[in-house]
Amino acid sequence: MTELLGIPPQVLFGQVLLGLINGAFYAVLSLGLAVIFGLLNIINFAHGALYMTGAFVAWFLLSYLGLGYWWALLLSPVIVGALGMVLERTLLKRIANLDHLYGLLLTFGLALIIQGLFRNYFGSSGQPYQIPPLLAGGHNLGFMFLPNYRAWVVAASLVVCLGTWFVIERTKLGSYLRAATENPVMVQAFGIDVPRMVTLTYGFGVALAAFAGVLAAPIYQVSPQMGADLIIVVFAVVVIGGMGSILGSIVTGFGLGIVEGLTKVFYPEASSTVIFIVMAIVLLIKPAGLFGRAA
Amino acid sequence: MAAAASPIPSAQRALEVRDLHAWYGESHVLHGMAFDVREGEVVTLLGRNGAGKTTTLKSIMGIVRQRQGEILFGGQNLVSLSSNKIARMGIALCPEERAIFASLNVRENLLLPPEVREGGMRLETIFELFPNLAERLASQGTKLSGGEQQMLAIARILRTGARFLLLDEPTEGLAPVIVQQIGRTIRRLKSEGFTIVLVEQNFRFAATVADRHFIVEHGQVVDMIPNDEIGHRQDTLHEYLGV
Ligand SMILES: Nc1ncnc2c1ncn2[C@@H]1O[C@H](COP(=O)(O)OP(=O)(O)OP(=O)(O)O)[C@@H](O)[C@H]1O
Ligand SMILES: [Mg+2]
């Protein structure tokens, strides 16, 4: 096989694939953040901790109930989403009309508590989680080896992201959501139970995080730290894409994953900082983010 | 102080507001507002800027939540209800600022409010009333002209089946032709049995559509003028409105 720019194709495509996988997690997580920020005006710092909780729920389901990956993929988002709704009703609701800073502090505190609880029980070591048998192995595509599970992660994330985008931008329910993001008072005066919609939206955003957590479980180890490491990068993605933009978070999430992967090939030293460099540049040129509307 | 209206038999009364007080935080804005509206009637609230007309409509709708007193509608006091419940009872507001949604196109804006009752106006009828809207369905809501946005804001609440409409200055800032078009619409709605509370600065316009006028000053109704007396009470009216 010929080399591209002096790089063996296996290496190049391998890194692009790794980038896509990371990008898939960035996209699903920043999408949840965008949906939550749009309607609740809260920068949900607990998102990483809830992603981690999602992975742990999968692990619990398997270890204690013998329920495998596919059940976890379904149940973990439901369980974590329900937990999110309880958090919204009992805590977030109280600060709904205050400055962003309060939401940030509250959710940051929640993140620390949730992580602390898990660390207390599991230490900082990771728990292994097996790839489901159906998705074990891989395919040799000639120019690279494609593990089935990784292909699945990218495909499942894409489907979830596009499905969410479709619901928000193209359906009646989505029009309620977009309208309530702009003017919740008026939407409620049309007869829509906006407080309930807010609770469900938070639950949905958080369920997306849990879904990502289950997807991640077989790739990374299930550890209390897994969310904290990821969430900082995801916030950079959100800033680059434009706070609250649905399409922005999806495109930016996948795009930056690939950028990161390519950086690993061509200039590995910068691979862990490239996203923050992009963020700085975007903030200088377009402070509202690539897809953001100027405030 | 209360409107010196002859008592209306309760069966014909669509809405009765009694001793209504409302606040924005610490500031007390409505001071014992009182008026009533008959089934099928068009009444206006007239008054100077800041008199409390918009606040009255928002208090009825439940948007201003800090309120006390009685707002009797359909056998219930609306004061204890949230705005979504009030909307479901068949009251709809067309707000002063129009509140057209920028992230929704015209069609989505039009279809946004859920139907609260059977018998809402059909889209064909709405497009007959406002042909401009039919041509602009795919445009972004806020790309419409001011007049078109006002038509959209009115059209939007006609679909829902609500029979009790609160219209806050629908003619504000619009060209005379469009004001006439809105006047025709209001008269048509009245002929179809809608009950309407209209806030207006333009009392000449108000006189062409309304049955009675309530004069609002400092968060109270200080006078009521039946529309057929408005001719020989011009001077009083001018005094109230400072025009
Ligand atoms: N959101 C608010 N917060 C605090 N005060 C308000 C608010 N909205 C209105 N007010 C005050 O309440 C009073 C009544 O206002 P309102 O909007 O009801 O008057 P209006 O009769 O509709 O006037 P206009 O003819 O100018 O629309 C005014 O003194 C106004 O300054
Ligand atoms: Mg007003």
UniProtKB/TrEMBL annotation, chain A:
KW Flavoprotein (keyword) present: no
Source species, domain of life: Bacteria
An annotated Gene Ontology molecular function: transmembrane transporter activity
Any matching Pfam family: BPD_transp_2
Bilayer topology term: Multi-pass membrane protein
Transmembrane portions of the chain: 12-35, 42-62, 68-87, 99-118, 149-168, 200-220, 232-259, 266-285
GO cellular component: plasma membrane
Keywords: Amino-acid transport, Cell membrane, Membrane, Transmembrane, Transmembrane helix, Transport
Localisation per UniProt entry: Cell membrane
Protein's GO biological process: amino acid transport
Family to which this protein belongs: Belongs to the binding-protein-dependent transport system permease family. LivHM subfamily.
Identification of the protein by name: Branched-chain amino acid ABC transporter permease
Protein's organism: Marinimicrococcus flavescens
From TrEMBL, chain B:
Gene Ontology molecular functions: ATP binding; ATP hydrolysis activity; branched-chain amino acid transmembrane transporter activity
Protein name in UniProt: ABC transporter ATP-binding protein
GO BP terms, alphabetized: L-amino acid transport
The keyword Magnesium belongs to this UniProt entry's keyword annotation: no
Lineage top rank: taxon: Bacteria
Lineage summary: Bacteria, Pseudomonadati, Pseudomonadota, Alphaproteobacteria, Geminicoccales
Organism: Marinimicrococcus flavescens
Keywords: Amino-acid transport, ATP-binding, Nucleotide-binding, Transport
ABC transporter domain span: 15-243
